Amino acid sequence: MKTLTKNANAKINIGLQVLNKRSDNYHNINSIFIPISLCDIITISESIQFELRSNVQFNITDDENLVMKAAKKFNEALGINKAYSIKLQKEIPMQAGLGGGSADAAVVLKMLNEMNGNPFGDEYLAKLAIELGSDVPFFIFNKPAIAKGRGEILEFINFRREINVLVVFPNVNISTKEAYEALKRTQEQVQEIDFYSAFNTGHYNLIINDFEQYAIEKYKEIREIKDILYENGSFFALMSGSGSAVYGMFDSLEDMAIAAEKLDKYKTYFCKTI
Questions:
Q1: How far lies 182's CA from each of 28, 56, 108, 222, 243, in Å?
Q2: What is the spatial distance between Cα 91 and Cα 86, in angstroms, rounded to a whole number?
Q3: How many CB atoms lie within 10 A of CB 213?
Q4: Rounded to whole angstroms, how far apart are CA atoms 127 and 272?
Q5: pLDDT tens, residue by residue, 105-150
Q6: Which of 39, 50, 128, 135 is most exposed, with the fewest beta carbons within 10 Å of its own?
Q7: Dihedrals φ, ψ of 130, to 5°?
């Protein structure tokens, strides 16, 4: 019986603009997705029936879970009817803007592809992935990229590896749907910011997250976390995705540890860009 175990990496957003609302009711975005070392751990075994076990409660049925959807999507694409037992060790906080669910789905596609003799290339897996969620294709490739469209149009970029990143989860969950609605975007597009150039030239003040103000107004903890990160040596800090996790980048591991101590009432994760 085949068994495979792999990590599913979280991501952070370096900048996030919601450019406009599309005719299909999705939104066009502009962002940079960066994978980080924080990860979930997935183990898949061939089985006589589908089963999903996890260390967390999802409060949805297995059929609604992205992991199970990904497994069944792969079966459908390959024209097989195999069942799998999937163990999901969640370390990435949920509803945090770190892409944990999308990462899990993408890695399940890649794992099942490997377990079945690699019939599909990454480009085809990415086509399956977009049917599961807008940012799932990114996690198929799992390397730094400028993301456009719904998040599925990826331009891979060179990015500094092993930047120290402190991720802070303020123990609040933000609805992505509500965050988008709060922006009230129309079909008229806002001016794009070149986040890649801004980061590489140290113009961090030009890098924004359109969801951050909404989140700060709703949860004062997000502003507090960001302020503490900057006060303790972070050279760049931002909320990731639609929230609620906030991250800070540090040159000094010592400064990062001090910041984490001052944020000990929240969940903190010591990470690096990969």
A1: 16, 29, 33, 17, 13
A2: 16
A3: 15
A4: 29
A5: 999 999 999 999 999 999 999 999 999 999 999 999 999 999 999 9
A6: 50
A7: -65, -25
Sign of the CA dihedral with 107 first, then 109, 112, and 116 last: negative
pLDDT tens digit sequence for 171-205: 998 888 899 999 999 999 999 999 999 999 999 99
Coil, strand, or helix at residue 87? strand
Strands (E) across 177-274 are located at: 236-239, 246-250, 267-272
Please give the structure tokens belonging to residue 14: 């370096």
Q: For residue 123, give every residue at least 6 positions away whose Cβ sits within 8 Å of its Cβ, in sequence order, or none.
A: none
- Any idea of the CA torsion for 130, 95, 52, 114, to the nearest 10 degrees? 40
Give the model's pLDDT for residue 116: 97
What does the alpha-carbon distance between residue 31 and residue 57 come to, in Å, rounded to a whole number? Answer: 30
Report d(CA 259, CA 225) in Å as an integer: 9
Report whether pLDDT(1) > 80.
Answer: no
**Do the Cβ atoms of 44 and 108 come closer than 8 Å?**
yes
In the 8-state DSSP scheme, what is residue 173?
Answer: -
Q: Which of 11, 69, 73, 110 is catalytic?
A: 11
Q: Is 4 helix (H, G, I), strand (E, B) or coil?
A: strand
Known catalytic residue: 135? Answer: yes
Residue 124 pLDDT: 98
Neighbours of 193 (CB within 10 A): 15
Give the domains, in start order, of the chain with CATH numbers: 3-156 (3.30.230.10), 164-272 (3.30.70.890)
Phi, psi of 125 (to 5 degrees): -60, -35
Q: Hey, what are 136's tokens?
A: 């799932």
* Residue of 21, 69, 104, 135 marked active site: 135
Q: Is residue 63 annotated as a catalytic residue, yes or no? A: no
21 close to 40: Cβ distance less than 8 angstroms: no
DSSP label at residue 93: P
